[in-house]
From TrEMBL:
Identification of the protein by name: Prefoldin subunit 3
Family note: Belongs to the prefoldin subunit alpha family.
Keyword Coiled coil attributed: yes
Keywords, sorted A to Z: Chaperone, Coiled coil
Natural source organism: Musa troglodytarum
Amino acid sequence: MAAAASASSPASPAAVTERRGIPGASFVEDVETYLKQSGLDCNSSLAFLQERLQQYKIVEMKLLAQQRDLQAKIPDIEKCLDVVATLEAKKGTGEALIADFEVSEGIYSRAKIEDSDSVCLWLGANVMLEYSLEEAKALLEKNLENAKASLEVLVADLQFLRDQVTITQVTVARVYNWDVHQRRIKQATKEE
């Protein structure tokens, strides 16, 4: 999207910034100068800006889906870390751990876990690996840290995107209002 949008962008390149493939929008102070620099008429400029708004909405939907996925993933990782910590605490005490676990959606089973030095982690894509408790804890902590960092970047990307949507909407309004004003001036001069 960024390559196609930047190739056809009528805004001045110095005013436009980009963040992780999201094209920036430039604020238009003088519509007449903007239209002359872009080489477009009002209708073409409005069509371009509306297309840009649609692109922003598509990117926003993708980012929101990623944000939802990460927000669901973080509690799961924290739950797994708690289980590993519980297993480490019970290790060597000779005390068995009774646990209820989900076999599939809505179906649970009870297990008695004796003293264990390892744990199996579900990695996804039908892959499960056995790790020592220390390795599992380190891996889960790293995954939790990465997920939280990714969530922070996504939140910043969404804020940047919302700013670009607002700037583009203001630009659409300014170009449209300028065009209406110009038409009224032409209409007034024809009537005289």
